[in-house]
Write a structure and sequence with these properties.
2 domains, 8 helices, ten-stranded antiparallel beta sheet, 15 strands, 31% strand, elongated, three-stranded antiparallel beta sheet, Alpha-Beta Plaits, alpha+beta, 321 residues
Length: 321
Amino acid sequence: MASVDLRTLVEDTYAEAFRSIYAEVLITARDEEWLQHCVHAVTGHATSTIFCDCEAGAAQWIGSEEAADGATPDGRPGCVVQFHVPRFRKDRVPHLQRVLLHRLSQNVLTCPTARCFNRLDTPEYYKLGRKLALFGDGYQFRDVRYGERGWVVPILAGEFFISRRFGYRDGVMGGNLWFMGRTEAAALEAATRAARAVELIPGCVTTFPGGVAASASKAGSRKYKFLIASTYAEYCPTLRERIGADCRLPPDVCSVQEIVVNGADQSTIESATRAAIHAAAPTADLVRITAGNYGGRLGKTFIHLHPLLSDAPEGPVPHPS
């Protein structure tokens, strides 16, 4: 790390994030295999609110040993999952409830051995357990299990347990970093290192496949007025000659990969961004680390990069797995 000049590598700019409301749930299962199946299903098609109903991801994986020591209510392996919707949606509160009802009923209730617990005890909440429990067709009942008040739903596999209430609160969406490489492999390695580092920060999630997005976008469209987002042509390597002086890429960059981070608050996003920068910086053939912003058109939460460079995060630097 000492050989990397971060102030030269990292552009003095900011990531333009925006406010959200989010819910956080804990899913458990009898083993890590079925837990992974469940989490992959419930967070599916949730990379971007551009065309998805929400943005969702795993905020924390709890292994069998931690669970046995009391990290989950029922002593089984678990995963904390966040679901974010933009605060600028006028229907954000009922919409998030629909998101949770649809995803938990169709992807958690249906997963063998899964259970679902609330993670946010907030003044505002959804009576979601009661709604989902209607699947029990009148045979459902309330009970206290694993120290939690919830609903028990008879199912063919046995019983499904879900908490009575699920809280929600304000969060932040859209923290991001771009990694520009001399090769596709370099850009992807840097972004992967960054995504793995973010996964170690409590209270935040990445939403794209493997935590990395290959198609960072700009707000709106140059040509199609009905689009809310489109390719950021000024940063597309294959358009360098076609757009000429409008190209914003350094001359030796041939690939740009992005990570996007959602989380509980701006401080959490800043911690994740700091960890991501320090993890990615040693990557060979990495030309620049920067971030996407749109002059305040998208959001008013600015994550400035240079103030995050002075203090390296504690712990080992993650490597791609």
